[in-house]
Amino acid sequence: MDWKRLVQFALLGSSGVEPYGILLVRASLGLFFAISGANKLFVAGSRQTMYDTLVEAKVPFPRVTTYFVSGVELVGGSLLTVGFLSSLASVALLADMLVAVLTAKLSAMPHGLSPLNWFDDFLYLPEVLYVLFFIWLICSGPGRFSVDYSLAGRL
Question: How far is CA 137 from CA 9, 122, 125, in A?
Fold first, then answer.
């Protein structure tokens, strides 16, 4: 057994499998948002839930915003899934999640928590995790298995 390689892997990971990790995160996140956006656009119950959430959060123009946000999720998620215009899609979905956190999620957080417990609850929100994933994808790029990578190689 090669102990040096094992220790290096434990400390540094493996850059050889990094493109597969990026693919897994990018495609999974993209599919999630594409499906979520499609449900909100084309399934009346999901669209109504989204509308009700926006009304409760006092977002202006909730009807138009419902369709806009759902469209951003469908289109952005689809682009992210295949890795086309990945940074642009990540920025749009990042903005979508930041608005969701600021308008709906923060107001639903329990009151009277200690700062540490509040931060723990905040980090537990799925939208916060999505924000972190989008920041990572913007910084790392879409990976080797993407349309963007193929197009960049041809330029």
Answer: 22, 21, 19
